[in-house]
Specification:
Blueprint: H1 4-7, H2 24-61, E1 66-70, H3 72-89, E2 96-99, H4 120-127, E3 135-140, H5 146-158, E4 162-166, H6 172-176, E5 179-182, H7 197-216, H8 233-246, H9 253-263, H10 266-280
Parallel strand pairs: 1-2, 1-3, 3-4, 4-5
GO molecular function: lyase activity
Keywords: Carbohydrate metabolism, Lyase
Enzyme class: lyase
């Protein structure tokens, strides 16, 4: 049986020595060199990522939901994704949700001991009435986090499809998932600090997953965020410009702005105009 050091690449010693003796220029250059490896590691995993996204899409088409589950960096990045996707694509907080040890209210706490809790995550999912129509996606750099592993095991017993993003090969969490994604980013610049390359890979894959899903659900048209929420001046201005680009007969910016604000998004403004046009006919 291989030892933990062989199995957990993320815990292997950094390729760099005497970090404390390096200049700022040396530190940033070496960190950037390591970061270059992240996209290449994701490229190797693209076939598995594609299968994962297609499986999630199938569940969403049934009216199901996507639940992210993770601790530490992965859990916090996943929670951030659930927040950002709402504003970007104009959806509520029900379709994509996050499960974090102790609940989202514990997000800013540093008590990593909660990742050893074997029942809290499943209890949170039960409180949300998890069903076979939903999908649970676990995040764990080590691939061994008890909180995440227990959730996936409970889901398997209940017939709920699962996936995972891990950064070590042949990890227990990957073996427990229906759609595992292993992104082997290698030893960290600071030994064991998986908030670095492993965390970067998880953020990039989260972007791929949520962006692809929302595009596939029609929340983007052309390449524009036509359903984005109008939560600040920048987004209102962007929405006006998008609307005028898509509807060149409207040339009065202030008129468009009033319409956009009344409707709530570019798409809703266009639908409002279309409904009025249909009534006129």
């Amino acid at each position: 049986m291989p030892n933990k050091e062989e199995k957990r690449i993320t815990e292997q010693s950094s390729l760099y020595e005497h970090l404390e003796k390096m200049s700022v220029a040396e530190l940033t250059a070496h960190i950037n060199e390591e970061n270059k490896k992240v996209a290449l590691a994701i490229e190797e995993a693209l076939p598995a990522i594609n299968q994962l996204i297609s499986a999630i899409e199938g569940q969403l088409k049934k009216g199901g939901r996507l639940f992210y589950a993770g601790c530490g960096t992965g859990g916090r990045l996943a929670t951030l994704d659930t927040i950002e996707v709402q504003n970007t694509y104009g959806i509520d907080g029900s379709q994509i949700q996050a499960i974090f040890p102790g609940g989202i209210g514990c997000l800013t706490q540093t008590r990593e001991s909660r990742e050893d809790d074997l029942e809290n995550g499943w209890h949170q999912l039960c409180d949300k009435h998890i069903s076979k129509h939903d999908f649970v996606l676990g995040f764990s750099a080590s691939g061994t986090t008890p909180f995440v592993l227990s959730i996936l095991q409970h889901c398997k017993e209940a017939g709920i499809p699962t996936g995972c993003i891990v950064n070590n090969p042949h990890a227990p969490i990957a073996q427990a998932a229906d759609y595992p994604v292993e992104v082997i980013t290698g030893p960290e610049f600071v030994t064991g600090s998986t908030r670095m390359k492993a965390g970067s890979s998880q953020k990039m894959i989260l972007d791929m997953i949520s962006t692809s899903l929302q595009i596939r659900q029609g929340r983007v048209e052309g390449n524009k965020m036509v359903n984005a929420k109008l939560i600040n001046h920048k987004l209102i201005d962007r929405a006006c410009r998008i609307f005028m680009e898509r509807n060149p007969e409207y040339t009065d910016y202030e008129e468009v702005k009033l319409l956009i604000l009344k409707a709530g998004s570019v798409k809703k403004a266009e639908d409002l105009l279309k409904s009025k046009s249909d009534l006129d006919v």
